[in-house]
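Issue 218. Parser rejects a valid record. Input:
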Amino acid sequence: MKQHHYSLLAMSIMGAFYSNDAMADLMAQCLVGVPQFRGEIVQAGDQTRLPIYIEADSALINQPTDATYTGDVSIKQGMRSVLVDEVKIEQQGNQSRIAYLNGNFNYQDNLISAKGNNATLNLLNRDANFNGADYQLVGRQGRGTAEDVAVSDDIRVMKNATFTSCLPNDESWSIEANEMIQHVSEEYTELWHARFKVAGVPIFYSPYLQFPIGDRRRSGLLIPSAGHSSREGYFYSQPIYWNIAPNVDATLTPTYYSRRGWQLSPELRYLTRFGEGKVAAEYMKKDRLSDWIESNKSRHLLFWQHQANFLTHWRFFADYTKVSDNRYFADFDSLYGNRTDGYATQNFRLGYYQSNYDFSIAAKRFQTFDSSGIKPYRVLPQIDFHYYKNNLLKHGDFSFFGQVSRFDNDSHSMPTAWRFHVEPTINFPFVNNLGSVNLETKLYATHYLQKRGKAEDANDIKKHVTRVLPQFKLDLKTTLESENQLVTGFTQVLEPRVQYLYRPYKNQQDIGSQDRDTVGLGYDSALLQQDYFALFNDRRYSGLDRIASANQITVGGTTRFFDDETGSEVFNFSAGQIYYLSSSRVDDSSRNRTFHSSSSWSLESNWKFHKDWNWRGSYQYDTILNETALANMSLQYKPSADNLVQLNYRYASQNYIDQNLGENPYNQDIKQVGAVVGWAVNDNVSFMISHYHDLALKKPVQSQFGVTYSTCCWNVSLYTARHLIATPQGKPDSINDVYYDNRFGVNFELRLGNNYSSGLDKLLSKGIIPYQEAFNIN
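Output the parser choked on:
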C-alpha cells in the first residue's frame, strides 16, 4: 500500500476544514445558567416609594407593627425578589421596615442572586444580610459562597468567602478569603488573607489582594508571559498596570532574559483636551547577548505619538521613534518597530486648516539602520502652504502649493541646502454622462541655496540652482456598462483611461551631491513608483528633487463585475502601460533615464469568487527584458472571523532588480511562498500555523505554531516559532550562512470580565511576517 507523508501544515489545514463548527458560541455557553435581570432599573433613592407585593399560603397580620407569612412566600419590591419558607416583617411607621427570612431563601436583584438559610432585608433601602449564602453575580460570570453577606447600595461585604468565575461544578480555580469586599460600581474586589487555589490545591497566599469583577480598568498585575529562546535563554515578562485617572494610565513591564539581563518597558497613555497620545520607552542597561560586542553601552528605545485638534482650526501631530543602535529591532521584539524595518521616523507637524487653504510647519528625520556612511537628510523646518479655489477661471479650478525646506545631514561630506518651491496648478474638468476629460497645466519652480559640506574631502557644489519645469496633462476617463453580459447574473463595467503627460527635460545634476555614487538621490526621498496606479502619477519618483522629463502616453483600464442581486463588486481587473514618446531622464546619468519605448505591463486583479473566498494578484512584465519582473498573489479562504486559510507568493527577477536597484546582494531571483492558517476548531480550541519559505535560497524564513485553549474562566496559549535573525556580529555573512532563533512561549489568563475572544488575533499578529487581511472587495 502506498504511504502518504503529510506535513504539519497540511495536516492542520485538513483538520481545519473537517473540524466541528456546530457547537454553540462560547459566550452563549458560559452565560447559560447565569441569572439575568429582566426588570426595570430603579434608582436607590426611589426604593422607599416602591410598593411591596407579598404572596403566601397563609398570613398572620398584627397591624400596624408586624406580619408573619408562611408557605411558599414570594416578596417583590422594585428590582429585588425573594422566595422563602417564612418571613416576618416588623415596622415602625415610616422609620423602619425589616423583613426576617426564616428557612431556605432564594434572593435576586439586578446585581446578585443568593441562596441560603436565614436573612434580613431592609425594605426601605437596599440593605440585606444573608447567612450561609451561595451567591451568583447577575448578568456576568462570578459565583461563590460566604458564611455571612452584608449587601448595601454599592458594597457587598462577605465573611469567610470564596469567589470564582468558573461555571457550577467547575473548580478549575477559586479564591478564598477571610473577608471579601466587592465594590459594585467600581467593579473590583478587596480580599484579606486570600488563598488562590487551582483544582482545590492552594498555590498562592497574600495578606491583601485586589482583582476586577468587571470590564473596568484597575491597577494591578496583567497577564504575564514566559518562554524560552535559543538565542536569549529563558524569559519572563510581567506587565504592571496603573490606572492613574480615567484619562491616563500606564504600564510598566519588566522582562528578564537569562542570557541577556533585565529590560524595563514603561508605557503611558493619555487623553486630554490638548490631544491624545502615547509615550513609551524600552531600556536595558547592559546586554549580555553573546553576539553583542558593545556590552558597555545601554540599549534603549524612545517612542512618542500624539495628535491634537485645538482652537477649532489647528492640528498637531507627532510620531517619534529613536533607538540606541542599528540592530535594536533585529535583537528585540518591540511593539514600536519590526525587525524588517529599515528606519525609524521622527516627525512633527503643526498645521492651521481652513476650507480654502492650509498652512503647516514640520520637522522630519529618519534614523536608518544600514551600515552606510551616508545618512538621509533631516528637514527642519519644512513650511507648507496649500490654497484651493474652484471656478477661479471659467470652468477652471486653481490650486497652489508652496514649500520652504532646510536640509541638513550628519555626514560632513554631504552638502546642506535651503529649498524654495512653488507649484501652481490650473485644472479644467469636463464631466458628463459619458465620462470625464481633465486638462491640467502645472508649473514646478524650485530654487536651491546650497552649501558645501564641512569635510575637507567634500565635493564642491553649485551654490545657487534654479529649476523651472512646466507640465501639461490630458486625462480621459469613461465608464461603460456592458449591455451584452458575459456572465449571467452580473453587471460588467468597463473603465478605460488614457493620459498624456508632457514635461520638458532639465538637467538636475547640480542639485545635491556631485558624487557619482550618490547623485540621483537629492535631498528628499526618490523612490521609484512602480505599481499600476502609479502609472498615472505625475512623477516617476517621490520627492521634489528629481523630477524626470515626460513625453508619454499612459493607457490603462479596469473592468469590474457586480452581483445583480446584492450590488456588491465581485471581480476587477486592471491593466496599464506607459509609452514613452521620448526618453525620460533627470540628468545625464544612464541609470536615471529610460532607454526603451514603453514601461513594464502592470496588471492587478481581485476576485471574490465565493462569499468565503478571495483572490488577489499583481503582475509586471518587462518588455525590455522579455520576462516577468514582479509578481505576487494571495488566496484566502475565510468563512468566519475566527477561521481563515491564506496562501501567498512573491517573486522578483534578478535582472529586474539589477536594472532598477543596482547590484543584487543575493545574486538571484526572489521567490517566496508562504501560508498561514488560523482556525477556531471549536469553542475551546483555536490555533495558528504559518510557514514562509524562500525558494531561491532553499531555506525557510519563518515557521510558527500557536494554540489557545479557552474555557469560561481561563485560557492558556502556547506558541513556538523558528525565524531568521540578523547575522550575529563576528559570524560569516553570505548567502549560505543564515541564522535562526527558536522560541517557545506560554501565556495563562484568568477570565474575570466579559471578554470571550478566542485569542486568534494575538497569535496571527506574531512573527516577522504577521498576517495581513487580504483586500476585500464589496
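Fixed in the parser; the record now loads. Residues 625-777 form one domain.
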